[in-house]
Specification:
238 residues; alpha/beta; five-stranded mixed β-sheet; 9 helices; 55% helix; 15% strand
């Protein structure tokens, strides 16, 4: 029983409070800030920590927070009947070498899956689709661009009939790349595939959690949803 209680508290070996750790991770992952930007902003609040501490915290707790957010959302998303996915891939340079970040978002703009590969062939598309389907289940329709790797992989999976393609149908996922691109510039690109994979997954989950579609709702509703999202964030891993 004691071992279970200890393992349930991921903050037990850290001197800083969970609230400060959550705030530092939130500021770094959600906003286009550098590690030193976060250090300076926290210093203005009277919190004296090094930028390397911020790096340690996001590496340690970012995936844990993202996993908890995904766990709470997956069951709700699977129950949605008219679920439509949008798939796309973007170029990302790692140490000057081109890599590909595959991303799947749903019709509401929520990031479902992120996957980094060195190639953009059928094998990479198949691995990406298997990963997304295993975690989130089947979709009513899957919208892609004209890349031939998608139909080849979907034919092998037996869901080619669910594929849709059109000139403007995939604007949803095209626009969803913008927040990640802003973070990429602030981080001055990535140096390792595993770092890109980790950050893309964490960033996607936090973006989902705090995305309130403020342009579609009135100010009062937006403030209520924002407060609810912040309150839920403060309870993660509590």
């Amino acid at each position: 029983m004691s071992r279970a209680c200890k393992s349930a508290n991921p903050f037990r070996y850290f001197n800083s409070s969970p609230e400060i750790i959550r705030l530092a991770v939130l500021m770094y992952v959600r906003f286009p800030l550098s590690l030193r930007n976060v250090e300076d902003l926290l210093a203005e609040r009277g919190i004296d920590i090094c930028h390397e501490t911020v790096r340690l915290w996001w590496n340690r707790f970012g995936p844990m927070f993202a996993s908890e957010i995904r766990r709470q959302r997956v069951s709700r998303m699977r129950g949605f009947r008219q679920w439509r996915w949008h798939l796309d891939e973007v170029f990302v340079k790692i140490n000057g070498e081109r890599h590909y970040l595959w991303r799947a978002v749903d019709h509401e703009g929520e990031v479902l899956e992120s996957y980094v590969t060195k190639t953009r062939d059928k094998a990479a598309a198949l691995t990406f689709l298997k990963k997304a389907l295993k975690r989130h289940g089947r979709a009513e329709a899957i919208v892609t661009d004209g890349l031939r790797s998608y139909p080849a992989a979907m034919r092998q999976l037996g869901n080619l009939d669910r594929r849709k393609m059109g000139r403007w149908l995939n604007n949803r996922v095209e626009n969803s790349h913008l927040p990640f691109r802003r973070r990429e510039r602030a981080m001055q690109r990535f140096r390792q595939m595993k770092t890109l994979q980790k950050f893309a997954s964490v960033h996607g989950s936090l973006h989902n959690h705090f995305s309130q579609d403020r342009h579609l709702i009135d100010r009062k509703t937006y403030k209520q949803r924002r407060s609810a999202a912040l309150a839920e964030w403060q309870t993660l891993m509590a």
